[in-house]
Design a protein that fits this description.
Beta-lactamase, Probable Glutaminase Ybgj, Chain: A, domain 2, globular, Glutaminase, 50% helix, EC 3.5.1.2, hydrolase, 8 helices, 5 strands, single chain
């Protein structure tokens, strides 16, 4: 897998271009301070990589894998958006991969289904099951306090509140989405 990420800058540029296309906003960028912090505080990821290597679950050298992870992923974790940009950039996932505003097919419906499934099962770190139970929507949180949730066939909704719990999810954002689905009946369950 590491060999697929040889050109980190090109990969990041392609992902950022896709986000620009999805959001309709060319001003979305990354926050260098956050990217640097991700690299400086990735102790758990380093420990997990070494643990996985001890069970022979890495084909590549751990150092090489970690360097790739930090060069590649720390930038993706540092993309800065407001709630409007975030919800707009995920709207295609509520519409089987098609942006309903531009009517452009960004990904196919199978890919949209898979992404929504991944967000539902692991989009909120260790608290994904709790989020599913409370909110009942595919979603993804960020340690900056943002959460985006997808209501299939209807909308994407984003919330932001910086206070996070021990799992790295916005406390108020989760509660707001729980109240939203309770009041509207838009939970998928």
């Amino acid at each position: 897998m590491v060999s697929h990420f040889v050109n980190h800058e090109k990969t990041f540029s392609e992902i950022l271009a896709f986000i620009h296309q999805c959001s309709g906003d060319q001003n979305i960028t990354l926050e260098e301070v956050v990217a640097k912090s991700e690299m400086e505080h990735g102790f758990r990821n380093i420990a997990l990589a070494n643990l996985m290597k001890s069970f022979d679950n890495f084909d590549n050298d751990v150092i090489e894998v970690l360097q790739t992870y930090f060069k590649h992923c720390s930038k993706h974790c540092s993309i800065v958006m407001n709630a409007q940009q975030l919800s707009r950039s995920m709207l295609y996932l509520a519409n089987d991969g098609t942006d309903p505003i531009s009517n452009k097919q960004l990904i196919n419906s199978t890919q949209a289904k898979r992404i929504n499934s991944l967000m539902l099962t692991c989009g909120h770190y260790d608290a994904s099951g709790d989020f599913d139970f409370r909110v009942g929507l595919p979603g993804k949180s960020g340690v900056g306090g943002g959460i985006v949730a997808v209501v299939p066939g209807k909308m994407a909704i984003a919330v932001y509140s910086p206070a996070i719990n021990e799992s790295g999810n916005s406390l108020v954002g989760t509660k707001a989405l729980e109240l939203f689905t309770t009041k509207t009946g838009l939970s998928i369950f």
